[in-house]
Amino acid sequence: xxxxxxxxxxLIAELKDIRYQLEELKKLQNDRKQIxxxxxxxxxxxxxxxxxxxxxxxxxxxxxxxxxSTQHSIGxxxxxxxxxxxxxxDPYLWYSMIYPDDRMIVLNSITNISKGSHTxxxxxxxxxxxxxxxxxxxxxxxxxxKNGQLIKYDGLIExxxxxxxxxxxxxxxxxxxxxxxxxxxxxxxxxDSKGDVIFWNASAQKIFGYTEEEIRGKSLKILMPEKYxxxxxxxxxxxxxxxxxxxxxxxxxxxxxxxxxxxxFPIELxxxxxxxxxxxxxSAIIRDITxxxxxxxxxxxxxxxxxxxxVYNRTKFxxxxxxxxxxxKRYNDPLSMIMFDIDHxxxxxxxxxxxxxxxxxxxxxxxxxxxxxxxxxxxxxGGEEFIIITPQTEMEKAGILAERxxxxxxxxxxxxxxxxxxxxxxxxxxxxxxxxxxxxxTDDALYLSxxxxxxxxxxxx
Length: 461
Known about the structure:
- α12 (345-352) crosses α13 (354-369).
- The chain is α+β, with helices and mostly antiparallel strands.
- It has helices at residues 2-52, 75-80, 84-89, 93-96, 103-114, 161-183, 202-208, 212-215, 226-242, 290-304, 314-331, 345-352, 354-369, 395-410, 435-451; strands at residues 55-63, 66-72, 122-127, 133-144, 150-159, 187-192, 197-200, 251-258, 264-276, 279-288, 335-342, 377-382, 385-391, 413-414, 418-419, 422-428, 457-459.
- The protein contains 15 helices and 17 strands.
């Protein structure tokens, strides 16, 4: 019985011991996981630190003008690929890793500090142990003995490859931009955040008249008429505050440029903004559209003008009469119309030819224009027939104008043909009139003058 109970106690003790061992094993496993996690974290931190290393320090000891030893910090391995002990074993390793074309830059800097001269940081290339090339910034700090002899110098090596690559890319970009800009037919102008010109292509010089030397550093305001300058200043201020402009990404034709000689001309303008680091710049492409505007004006003029006499044609007449009728109805203003033609003009053409007929029509319109007010409209209605629209004029006053025109033509002597006469009809707009009834009544008044013997003015209410 005692033996059995003892056996039970032994079993319980053994179970407790096994449980303890299991718990210890579990702790060991947890500790191992923690160790593994800590190791991974440490490796990650080391990797980040290594990647963040962009510089290291070194010391070169000098005796009798020669380097006798060099010491490089652990960071040298990251940048150069050489371990610190490799520099200790070979005092001239630092020189051999300098890119051959750049060695004189470094030697000249060392010569300067050996003479006691101040030297600025230098930039040069080094050849890494794996053969790759790295750009570095090398800052030298010299130490001298009491006799002024150089005994050592400390240095700071910084990896500037990324910056050099960016500079080279920017240089290539600038060269490409300049090549394109110099061959562009449009003016290309670049300004800084203050609105001062920093780039000016050949076409800009041709269009505005300023050389790049004359315009560089000057405000953009010099290129715009006075009426735009205040808005330009306010727009530039607003742009610097908000980064937005209503002109970005758009082609604008509502502006005029100002040439060096003071003349204004229409331009087509497109503006963009770009950044280089913290600096803000603006570029504008400017096209001189003087020729296009002149052509547009010429086309517009031809669309509304009679080519022979250069007075308004029927198309323009309908536009004018519509507006004047609306004005007369709205403000209850008087509106009158005069219609006239040249007496016996067919005989002139038959006798002297159509070229003389054209000459008469052109000269006749000049004689009539001299009698009109600025707000009167002269229209060639067709053939030798013309209409005069006289806004804000009652029929009696329009009749007086018609008499004055009749007399001026009657007294004018045309070459070859001599004197001619015209017949005129006058009427006033009525509120119930349409455009057609208004014209018809004026036409009736004209033919009344013809029936009465021509060279006279007739009025019809």
